[in-house]
Amino acid sequence: MYELNFGVPMAGAVICTLNAHHDAAMVSVLLKHSEAKLVFADHQFLTIAEDAINLLSQSNSKSPLLIPIPEPSKDYSHSPGLNYESLIKNGDPCFDIKWPIDECDPIALNYTSGTTSRPKGVVYTHRGAYLNCISSILFSEIRTLPVYLWTVPIFHSNGWCLTWGIAAQGGLNVCLRDFTAKTIFEKITRYGVTHMTGAPTVLNMMANCPLADRQPLAAGQMVCVMTGGATPQPPVLEKMEEMGFKVVHVYGLTETYGPATVCEWKPEWDELSVDQQAKMMGRQGIRHIGTEAVDVKDPETMKSVPADGKTMGEVMFRGNTVMNGYFKDLKATEEVFAGGWMRTGDLGVRHADGYIQVKDRLKDIIISGLENISTIEVESVVYSHPAVLEAAVVGRPDEYWGETPCAFVKLKDGASADAEEIIGFCRARLPDFMVPKSVVFGELPKTSTGKMQKFVLRERAKAMGSLFMNGCGKMLEI
Ligand SMILES: Nc1ncnc2c1ncn2[C@@H]1O[C@H](COP(=O)(O)OP(=O)(O)OP(=O)(O)O)[C@@H](O)[C@H]1O
């Protein structure tokens, strides 16, 4: 997939990398929507690709040509039919690169993670990809000859545009098939990794990995970890720094070519307590050099909200590193660009120092009585309980309040805590209306890009029904 990020655009085509966790039905929908003509499928996903193409032909759609990517250890030189290696071997070494005619020609079609709705096809231009790639190299301080560990999938916004960035700096790519904290630590030591990217769930996995599976960084080894895709929890940031990693927090969307803001470290934060530093770093930050503008606006009036750290508005972007639009979806494109800015669907605030902070997704915010509750704020408190490994908070429909916060929690291995304890812990740290009124323990559903599937949890909370109240609206049972 890494090589194809170069080969496909150089052949004058558009690359569309699909999520390796999709099933055949979803792959066939996306093949049809993208109008792909050629499909390269890694040997691990060959069956899914074949099934998807079969589904396409059953629906009378034109089938793309399938080119398997063989297992590296196997000798495929005598096997019949075209495969990726034979295609490369028999290719024309004098082929002239087909450069884009216009820098705003498309280079890639990337589908969103599908966290809130069906994946949308986002069109990237050569110009936007170039700008975001250069910006990412700068803000994550990727100097020449980096050793880069891939934990962010390359199918996600072309690996946040770092597929091209690592090559630009002559880097070595370390890829993973076995995705465990143990393997991550092993690769970091074995290859002398200097940079990596990872969703907060990956950092969480590393921070909570058993000591026996963890390898300390070599003397003098500095690993810069770019994290984003969801809000990183302050305790996790703290732990990563404690283990010697330098964390760079970034925020963006598929629609912004991956990272669009970065939480740049300020020298005055050196004086703060570790806990306060992690809180500062948990904010989404300021635009990077490739982003023309980021703002938090009232979505109705399009006026910027005051920089008071309290007034919520919608985070919006504009500039060359914002997508061209959604492929074959003019209506959604017009909606997302209404008012001349790209609306993210994220609610945030502006702080006095110019940094923005995301408080929630519009679709996730809980409305309880007359109060808006940021699920991210409640989650950060639940996360700070020593027994909690992961937490997600959603609104549970309620006859009296409209909704009440309901926390879904996964505990650390060997740790114990009951609902009462979690609720008591939150009560000591949050205003009453924000305290979860119910707690459910178990595994938490996530997307393959590491985001909590809150729509699944909302369904579960809905199925639980309303809490019982007495006449004054007090909860009678938990
Ligand atoms: N650093 C971050 N902090 C908080 N949230 C983040 C951060 N980075 C990304 N996000 C969240 O991820 C979203 C972008 O995700 P992505 O483009 O992968 O698709 P998706 O929005 O999850 O999927 P879909 O649009 O299909 O529902 C942002 O709008 C934001 O809600």
Structure description:
The protein has 478 residues and is an alpha/beta fold. The protein has 3 domains: 4-89, no CATH class; 106-361, ANL, N-terminal domain (Rossmann fold, 3-Layer(aba) Sandwich); 366-464, ANL, C-terminal domain (GMP Synthetase, Chain A, domain 3, 2-Layer Sandwich), CATH 3.30.300. The chain has helices at 4-10, 24-34, 46-58, 84-89, 126-139, 157-160, 162-168, 181-191, 200-207, 234-242, 274-281, 330-336, 375-383, 419-427, 454-464; strands at residues 38-42, 65-69, 106-111, 121-125, 147-150, 172-174, 195-198, 223-227, 245-253, 258-262, 286-287, 293-297, 313-318, 342-350, 356-361, 366-368, 371-373, 388-398, 402-411, 438-441. Strands 6-5-7-8-9-10-11 form a 7-stranded mixed β-sheet, with helices on both faces. A 4-stranded antiparallel β-sheet has the order 12-13-14-15. Strands 18-19-20 form a 3-stranded mixed β-sheet. Strand 1, helix 3 (46-58) and strand 2 (65-69) form a beta-alpha-beta unit. The longest helix is centred in the first third of the chain and has 14 residues, at 126-139. The model is unreliable at 470-474 (pLDDT under 50). The site of adenosine-5'-triphosphate has 24 residues, from strand 9, strand 14 and strand 15. This is 4-coumarate--CoA ligase. Keywords: Fatty acid metabolism, Ligase, Lipid metabolism.
Report the helical percentage.
25-40%
CATH class of the largest domain: Alpha Beta
Count of alpha and pi helical runs? 15
Strand order of the largest sheet: 6-5-7-8-9-10-11
Number of strand segments: 20
In terms of DSSP E residues, the strand content is: 15-25%
- What is the alpha-carbon Rg in Å? 23 Å
The backbone outline, from C-alpha atoms, is globular
Largest sheet: 7 strands, mixed
Mean pLDDT score, rounded? Answer: 92
Alpha-carbon distance between the termini?
A: 49 Å
Low-confidence stretches: 470-474
